[in-house]
Design brief:
Helices cover about 35% and strands about 40% of the residues. With about 130 residues, the chain is of the alpha+beta class. Strands 1, 2, 3, 4, 5, 6, 7 and 8 form an eight-stranded antiparallel sheet that branches.
Length: about 130
């Protein structure tokens, strides 16, 4: 019985330790948006474009809205590859075409600022 309790205690400690590491990789961008930095990837395409892929989860009334982004720093575009909105009363997905970050649209500009902040955080953590 004592050996089993020690084994269970060690398993719980290991699980708690791994959960702490995982929780630290979630970056709270603002009061409603969190980004899993482990899932964030920066890739360079064969034609030299540097593209950041990341997922942002936004807390909304009664649920969440999960955005999968592709931010092409070279072309100066951002795209919502997939948006999944889920509440108690609805569930749907949508997507959008790439849009220039040099737009007057404040929503696109805010998304581009967030994407650049995610990019800076990602590349600076690699060093």
């Amino acid at each position: 019985m004592k050996k089993m309790m020690i084994a269970l205690g060690m398993a719980a400690a290991i699980a708690a330790g791994s959960m702490t590491v995982s929780a630290e990789n979630y970056w709270k961008y603002n009061d409603t948006i969190s980004i899993d930095m482990d899932e964030t990837k920066v890739k360079t395409t064969t034609n030299g474009h540097e593209i950041l892929h990341f997922v942002a989860v936004e807390a909304i009334d009664g649920g969440t809205c999960t955005y999968t982004y592709a931010y092409d720093r070279t072309a100066g575009t951002i795209q919502v590859v997939e948006m999944e909105k889920e509440t108690n009363t609805l569930h749907y997905t949508s997507n959008f075409t790439p849009t220039s970050i040099n737009t007057n649209n404040p929503v696109i500009r805010a998304r581009a600022q967030m994407a650049e902040a995610v990019y800076q955080r990602k590349v600076n953590h690699k060093k």
